Amino acid sequence: xxxxxxxxxxxxxxPEPVLNRGPKPVWNVLSREAQGLRVxxxxxxxxxxxxxxxxxxxxxxxxxxLRKMFGEAPVRxxxxxxxxxxxxxxxxxxxxxxGVYVDxxxxxxxxxxxxxxxxxxxxxxxxxxxxxxxxILQEMALADYFPVNVIVTELQGENVTVEIxxxxxxxxxxxxxxxxxxxxxxxxxxxxxxxxxxxxxxGLDVIxxxxxxxxxxxxxxxxxxxxxxVIAKIGNRLRGVGLTAFRTPAKRLLV
Length: 255
Known about the structure:
Number of strands: 13
Number of helices: 9
Largest sheet: 6 strands, mixed
Shape: globular
Distance between the termini: 66 Å
């Protein structure tokens, strides 16, 4: 039997409102993965990143399962190298004009966000059009805690520059081509999102829920339903949950 605690910092960032409400949503998800395993475990959230400590005969198996499901944060700046791909989360959306910051989990020796610069945002997300970072972020519904996979393109001292990886870029551009509005819900697990949609009788307005990360869900709206309308109908049932509307430009082309 393994002795002592083993630790993994997963590539999942816990939104501040969830930390304020308590860890139950996270606990529920991880409890399902621990079923049948001989393991004691506990969670923490250093600088909002999900850290799991485990001990027992199946501790290593449990942590490896979680690493495979959620990925692992680099934690230390020295572990980040050029051309690495990391899962990160938008932070400070719309607060600076020269791009947007992405938190990729650099916590030591000091916390450091990576910069996704405006010129790369334009090239990757707006076909080179001369738009502001705020316009692009709003069009793509890239609010705080939105998960993105990024490629590290430059390391200069402690500064880290990134651009979004092909998978994330393709996903966002594909959304633009489809006729479905979407609601990005931050700070909620999938099970609870499904319960809220059902209890609000919005099953006909929301045709599918896509999980973007542990606590970020994407509610796909019916063809004749717009995202702001869904937010108006379910917002009062989701206090403390961030709701952002994605308005597909493909609908406007039909008018």
